[in-house]
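Q: My labmate handed me this sequence with no annotations at all. I'd like to see what the chain might look like in three dimensions before we decide whether it's worth expressing. Could you predict it?
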Amino acid sequence: MAGPATPPASEANLEVIPLSGGDRTLAMRLSAMMLLEFFVFGAWFATLGLVLATNGAADIIGQAYLLSAVAAIISPLFMGAIGDRYLPPRVLLSLLHVAGAIVLFAIPNLIASGATGTTLAMIFVHMLFFQPTLGLVNSLALAELGVQQRIFPYVRVFGPLGWVVAGLTVGALGFSASTNVFYVAAAGAVALAIYALTLPASPPPAKGARFSLGDVIGIDALSLFRDRKFAVLMGCTLFTSISLAFYNAFASPYLGALGFENVAGVLALGQLSEVLFIVTIPFVLARISMKAAMLFGMAMWGVRFLLFILAADGSNTFAVVGVALHGICNDYFIVIAAMFIAKIAPARLAAQAQSWLILMISGFGAAIGSALSGQLFAAFVTRNVAEGASAWVPMWWVPVGLAVATTVIWIALFPSKPAGEKPKEDYNV
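A: Here is what I predict for the chain of 429 residues:
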């Protein structure tokens, strides 16, 4: 699974200034924060579908991921924005993870008792606490790095590494299909809550600012949709995020249906590939345009689900390769999309434009994808359990179709550079 897109540093903050010993120490401390943040997320979210399916709650898998997406849409309205104005970032991060840990500790008993409705409610509550922290760790790190924001990508890469560590830990403990994943995640949340209080003390970033609902949800950034490049990008991001929701919700139970035992360990390969491909982005963008790189990224979503379809015949290697494509699928579309938006959005709308990208990925795309995949799972897989992995094939054709449609839309509608025009930064960075 992918993390939220991160706004690149401004050009002023990309000035090459030698790193001091204090800068390196700070970068290491912030990297540890990123690792713990995504450890908490990856410990339970990656195999949630498998856990629910194994413990008699397969019918709520789609709903669980749908509620997680809804939380991503509404939680900033009443938590993130208020916290930015009244609480120091490290305190807010700590409090949110303490609250999240309490909820996580309660979920295993609820699943064991068959209280699916309450289980869904608690997953939703936990995500209300957790979703704001995904943006909070980014903004906290960028603020603390100051003039050294050019090294932020090297701090941020510890996020996927944290997901990898979580997957390997859960897999090694044999918890891939167990409700114990929630205890592992809760322990990580407590550790991060304590660690957050050791980070540098900074005042609330928007202390004294007037609360504006429009600022929080990016109403002013709607004007960006008049730019065809931005509008097409948001539409393609929505379609791609629907496919991402299919993957997040049902990759783990599908791997279980294929006979994999260490499902969490296999899924960790996806995050490991994400780490590897992040560092190739500057190299690739020095040779091809952002438009071409994003086209490649969105097309690979279709390839990965085709590999899942091929795996249904018993060729599990195809499934492993499909998981390992996660780095290309996420980095070459979602990460580069964030960089592209930074090039085309006016400075006054930069943050809101990035928020729209996150909203499309973790909010609307995830919500639609979770609801749709849940219905398809019920229609094809639940009703044809005796068919084994082959029952999943009709479901996987949907994200393949979405990838084809997205690729066609991107090629047909995204503006091309007029013939003879001097290359522009927003196409060739």
